[in-house]
Amino acid sequence: MKPYLSYFKSELLVGLQYKEAALAGLTTQFFWGILYAFVYQAFYNHTGVNTINFKELMCYVWLNQAFFSLIIFILRDNQIMEQIKNGTVAYELCRPYDLYWWWFLKHLSKRYASCFLRCLPVLVFAFLLPKPYNLTLPISIEAFVLFLIALFLGSIIIVSMVMIIQTISFFTYQDKGITSIFGTIGGLLSGLDIPLPLLPVVFLSVTEFLPFRLISDLSQRLYSGNIGIEYGLKSIGLQIIWIIILVIIGKLLMKIALRKVSIQGG
Amino acid sequence: MKLFLKYISLHLKISLEYKSSFIMTIISQTLAMFVELFTVYSLFLKFKLLDIYNPFELLLGFSTLWLGYSLVELFARGFDHFSRIIVNGNFDILLIRPANLFIQICGTDICHEKIGRVIISLLIFIYSSIKVISHFTIYKLLLLILMVFGCVVIIFSIFIIGATICFLTIQGLEAVNIITNGTRQVCQYPMGIYKKAVKIFFTTVIPLSLVNYYPLDYLTGRTDNILYVFMPILTIIMFFISKFIFNLGLRKYCSTGS
Q1: What is the pLDDT of residues B161-199, one digit of tens each?
Q2: What is the ipTM of this complex?
Q3: Cα–Cα distance measured from residue A86 to residue A181, given in angstroms and rounded to the nearest whole number
Q4: What DSSP string describes A24-81?
Q5: What pTM was estimated for this model as a whole?
Q6: Which residues in chain B touch residue A27, judged by CB atoms under 8 angstroms apart?
Q7: N- or C-end of chain B: fewer Cβ atoms within 10 A?
Q8: Residues of chain B with C-beta less than 8 angstroms from the C-beta of A31
Q9: Distance CA A9, CA A16 (A)
């Protein structure tokens, strides 16, 4: 366990070095948050919807922006794919650790490093905005605790999904196509493109049982009180089940992939 | 023009070297467009706006915008990646060649992956315009062509202005991306839902409502004012302004090459 933890720490420290990239990302997050606020406001001026009110929606939008790098599907730089392409994956294979968890942590730490740098400024900015557009405090302490748990488990789910996608690129040697298709579909199903409560009811019954909504939709709605504590607890149980399923699939796939792996480069 | 065709064929050869990746990217790009269309549709459904707005008008406005965007991204990607040309010093090479500078910049990167979006949005454009227009006249046909033309002009102008910023900053700016993508995000909904300030902004500063909102009144026959037909031509002004700014920046340009 210890080497994994120290690896996580060192990767985290590396990630924290990229402050300028984070700054550039920040402006994007501010802007998109404001833009969504504008667009949705236009709709809410016309009429309301019964599934989510504007206050809850703004919490949803701003939390999505604040924890963007935790919950987005494709992080831009992709070292693992590079390693597969140029053959340095051989070094990784020599290490006396489980490669699955090794890469899992690499990816997770990258997300958390990026998130640590970004989330606070976005949250503060969102709190200070004028009234209807701002991020409000969580509905209750219990809800906030559940929000944190759900968000953490959500980040585990997304990483275990990414691990599966990446293992598939072991077979194809190119990841651009698969990951971008996966990212597009996932963005819609997880509520990153548009908050799920604003989608048609028929569509929601489909997403209900898929793991995508557990990534960020669940935590965001818990925070604002859009869904109750009881339903939240049930969904957290579902999160754990999905994590187990996804990790098992990922590990199995990697086992098969490693049996076939051929090292590129000399 | 011959030069540009040469550029296109060269870039096509590059993309086709990685066939499966190329096809996958086209699929995912087109899929992304449908996801956007789906979100627009669901918002209108959820907020019960489909009684007020004709769904085909919605589709026409949407497809005009996306057709314009994907056309510009297809041919003028070089302006989008302009910072790269400047950073590695290649811009100096372009400057000393005896050919049109704009064509050369466009030719540095042609994004064939957008072809899927071009075709699909063109099909949606044609389908929805047939549904919207009850009886065709030559003016309406002209207006349809001018709408696409105007849209391309506006977005191309935004790209040019974005590239001009690179003269000063050298590094590419995230802000430029925000402007291009953010504008698309706002304008894919009909302007009618927004407040007056937003409408004015998208009529004067970035005149996208001149190509995908106001002309629809003429197409549906809500107005007979012939001036609506020539509205998209006004976008040319924006092109000349952006070209003027670009040339201004060009004079300030210091080479980064060694």
Answers
A1: 888 887 777 666 667 778 888 888 888 888 888 888 888
A2: 0.81
A3: 24
A4: HHHHHHHHHHHHHHHHHHHHHHH---SS--HHHHHHHHHHHHHTHHHH-S--S--HHH
A5: 0.84
A6: 174-175, 178
A7: C
A8: 178, 182
A9: 11
